[in-house]
Amino acid sequence: MNNIVVITLSIYLSIYLSIYLSIYLSIYLSIYLSIYLSIYLSIYLSIYLSIYLSIYLSIYLSIYLSIYLSIYLSIYLSIYLSIYLSIYLSIYLSKVFHSQTNF
């Protein structure tokens, strides 16, 4: 009789502990993991992304701007200077030629 009570109690206790621990651990782990992950990920991602983006953007923008500006300025200046110089030289030469023919 005593043996049956011990076995029954051990079975009930094991069932109770397994249910209690599974519920408790699932709730505790879900809360802990959600809080930890949200805090850790928010801090880590904000720091990582800010550093990564600042480095990436500085490198990318410096390369992009240097290439873009060099190409743009070379094309723009060549076109602008050729047009401006041709107009200016034509006006200047016409004035010089006109002043020489008046004498």
TrEMBL record:
<protein>
    <submittedName>
        <fullName>SJCHGC06985 protein</fullName>
    </submittedName>
</protein>
<feature type="transmembrane region" description="Helical">
    <location>
        <begin position="6"/>
        <end position="31"/>
    </location>
</feature>
<keyword id="KW-1133">Transmembrane helix</keyword>
<feature type="transmembrane region" description="Helical">
    <location>
        <begin position="71"/>
        <end position="93"/>
    </location>
</feature>
<keyword id="KW-0812">Transmembrane</keyword>
<keyword id="KW-0472">Membrane</keyword>
<feature type="transmembrane region" description="Helical">
    <location>
        <begin position="43"/>
        <end position="65"/>
    </location>
</feature>
